[in-house]
Design a protein that fits this description.
With 621 residues, the protein is α+β, with helices and mostly antiparallel strands. It folds into four domains: 22-135, Immunoglobulin-like (Sandwich), CATH 2.60.40.3500; 210-311, Immunoglobulin-like (Sandwich), CATH 2.60.40; 321-429, Immunoglobulin-like (Sandwich), CATH 2.60.40.3500; 445-615, Zn-dependent exopeptidases (Aminopeptidase, 3-Layer(aba) Sandwich), CATH 3.40.630.40. It has a nine-stranded mixed sheet. A seven-stranded antiparallel sheet has the order 3-4-8-7-6-12-15, with no helix packed on it. Helix 5 crosses helix 10 and helix 7 packs antiparallel against helix 10. It is globular, with a radius of gyration of 27 Å. It binds zinc ion. Residues 177-179, 451-452, 458, 466, 519 line the site of zinc ion.
Length: 621
């Protein structure tokens, strides 16, 4: 008996010993995909051995996920969401003995708890709220030649410290207008004694779209696998040693592959790093760096980075597909011509896009079997694709479409979630400069909304007032838009006070194509500067992108991104609407600049050009 007990004790001691010295996993961060459908929890775990419990709490209905043997390295945080299936998510250290990190999700009636899938990929945790991949058909960007900046990737969410349990109800109020220096305090109803509650902070939160879970070398190529939607930027080359760089924007990589080098052979290797919080970078070192290209799998979850001279020897697909149709549409924009090539397939397509210097664009479709080259040529040889060439790929299977380009050509490619449709936008400068100012906005109705006015000066520093600057800029924009044939309505055209609701009613009564609110930003920190574009409704994203892109291209200032925000005017107007923050009055240099005619003209030009690109020739509308 005594021996048995001693044995048990020994076992227990050993067990405890093990427990105490077992690595406690770190839970480092949590990010969200742009649809709130995927939540990435990044951990320090590398062996993939995770203990996770899922449970339900009621009143209100919540789901909790307990990650065992884990410590939270970031502050406990409450994320609040304004639309979609989740209304909030809290991550906190639930207990320290044993170590448990708890994620509690409060959901809306749109969410079915049984749809939640908890996955462990590469030692990290992925929570999938729905199987959106099979149900949606929207197009998503997979390749772009324009460098990504912060836009698309951040959204402002309300972040709060966890509040003490005495708090019965907490309502976060949203500032109806930007630039009010007073932070809106949460409304708190207390039970007994007062408790200190930190004000809600608006924080720009990274919303990832792709999680790079793993990487491995297969048949002399680098296979990148993950969850979400993979997206690549234009590749670029470095020398000494010769390297090629593939950037995956809007992505987070698993800790275990970060900064790791993968040997391909004696002379070639690959390294993966988290280059920016929003960007995963893959660097291939090879004497033949220019031979590398990325092949997209048929499900947007994987890419294979492989040499041109090795592709033929690798089995890239299990199923073949049939090219159902090819169409080209040509659209003249402000100073450019965009040729859009749409390819439809019966089954998911495996393909790659490679730019051969400034001579041609190579679109290789590997698993396409049924096609007729003459009829395909007939369909695509239009616009700037009139000299396109179609080849059979090496090995007989699949085809390659070669499109002549110049150094001024830019490309972006979108794909549907089923990988059965590819749309290439190939943009070239217009051959002969068209006369600008010839009714590019005929029949368009635009409401311009200079912020503040009258008794409301808006943001103010050194007696410089936002209301005056935004009115000056709006008046310039008004004239430029009218020169293009647009009908323009100004919510105010002099220094008078107009309430937010009156601005909305004014706009809605005029049924404009778009509503553009013009503001100047302010911050307590005088070094903060740059340009932000805010939207709220989904129908306004396209307008926001056009305006932001145009302003960032024309104005030499920091790109602070396109942000989804709940400003009153962009939330309540019927038309697609944006609110522009054209600089910071609190930054001395910008304050001085924005008072100059040159800067105001340049901003007005940029806004005008953005609106032309968005609205002319069947843009958004
Ligand atoms: Zn303002």
């Amino acid at each position: 008996m005594a021996v048995k007990f001693l044995k048990l004790l020994l076992v227990l001691i050993c067990f405890c010993f093990q427990m105490a010295f077992a690595d406690v996993m770190k839970v480092n961060d949590i990010t969200f995909d742009s649809s709130d459908s995927i939540i990435f929890v990044s951990t320090s775990n590398s062996d993939g051995d995770l203990k996770i419990k899922k449970g339900h709490l009621s009143n209100p209905d919540r789901i909790y996920i307990d990650i065992e043997n884990a410590v939270l390295t970031k502050k406990q945080t409450l994320y609040e969401f304004r639309n979609g299936k989740l209304s909030s998510l809290r991550i906190s250290q639930f207990s320290t003995n044993p170590h448990v990190v708890r994620i509690v999700m409060t959901y809306t009636s749109k969410f079915k708890p049984e749809d939640l899938k908890v996955m462990s990929v590469g030692g990290n945790i992925i929570l999938k709220l729905e199987n959106y991949k099979l149900t949606q058909d929207y197009l998503t960007q997979v390749y772009r030649e324009v460098k990504s900046s912060t836009y698309d990737y951040f959204e402002k969410v309300q972040v709060q410290e966890a509040v003490p349990p005495q708090v019965l109800e907490q309502i976060v109020l949203n500032p109806a207008e930007p630039n009010k220096s007073n932070v809106v305090q949460p409304k708190v109803i207390l039970k007994d004694e007062p408790v200190r509650v930190n004000p809600a902070i608006q924080e720009s939160k990274l919303r990832s779209r792709y999680f790079v879970a793993d990487a491995s070398v297969k048949q002399g190529a680098l296979l990148i696998s993950g969850t979400g939607i993979v997206n690549l930027e234009k590749v670029f080359y470095l020398s000494n040693p010769s390297r090629v760089v593939f950037d995956i924007p809007n992505a987070v990589s698993a800790g275990k592959i970060r900064n790791k080098t993968f040997t391909i052979n004696e002379t070639e290797n690959a390294k993966i790093g988290q280059f920016e919080p929003t960007k995963v970078r893959i660097v291939i070192t090879s004497p033949d760096a220019d031979k590398y290209r990325a092949v997209y799998s048929g499900d947007l979850q994987n890419i294979l980075i492989v040499r041109d001279d090795k592709i033929a020897g690798i089995k890239l697909f299990a199923e073949t597909t049939k090219l159902l149709s090819a169409k080209v549409k040509t659209k003249k924009e402000y100073r450019t011509q965009k040729d859009t090539l749409s390819l439809d397939f019966e089954e998911p397509v495996v393909y790659s896009i490679k730019r051969n210097g400034n001579t041609s664009l190579d679109i290789s479709l590997y698993n396409v079997t049924l096609y007729s080259i003459p009829s395909l040529l007939n369909q695509i040889q239009q616009g700037n694709l009139k000299n396109a060439v179609i080849d059979k790929l090496n090995g007989g299977q699949g085809i390659r479409i070669l499109i002549p380009i110049t150094d001024k050509t830019t490309l972006d490619c979108v794909e549907n979630l089923q990988s059965t449709k590819l749309v290439f936008n190939i943009t070239n400068p217009l051959q002969q400069q068209q006369k600008i100012g010839k009714g590019l906005l005929n029949k368009k109705i635009i409401v311009l909304d200079p912020g503040h006015g009258g008794t409301d000066p808006g943001a103010m520093r050194e007696s410089v007032m936002e209301k005056h600057i935004v009115l000056e800029i709006a008046k310039l924009v008004e004239q430029k838009l009218k020169n293009q044939g647009a009908t323009v309505y100004m919510s105010r055209s002099n220094d008078t006070f107009v309430s937010l609701s009156d601005r909305v009613v004014f706009s809605n009564n005029r049924k404009p194509d778009v509503f553009v609110s013009i503001h100047i930003n302010a911050s307590e920190n005088s070094s903060v500067h740059g340009i932000e574009t805010h939207y709220y409704k989904d129908d306004s994203i396209d307008l926001a992108k056009h305006l932001h892109k145009s302003i960032i291209q024309k104005i030499n200032d920091k790109d602070r991104g396109i942000i989804k925000s709940r400003f009153y005017v962009i939330r309540n107007t019927d038309a697609p609407s944006v609110l522009l923050e054209l600089g910071f009055i609190s930054n001395e240099q910008e304050r001085e600049l924005m008072q100059t005619k040159e800067r105001q003209e340049a901003l007005a030009d940029a806004i005008t050009e953005g609106l032309i690109n968005c609205l002319s020739d069947g843009g958004t509308k």
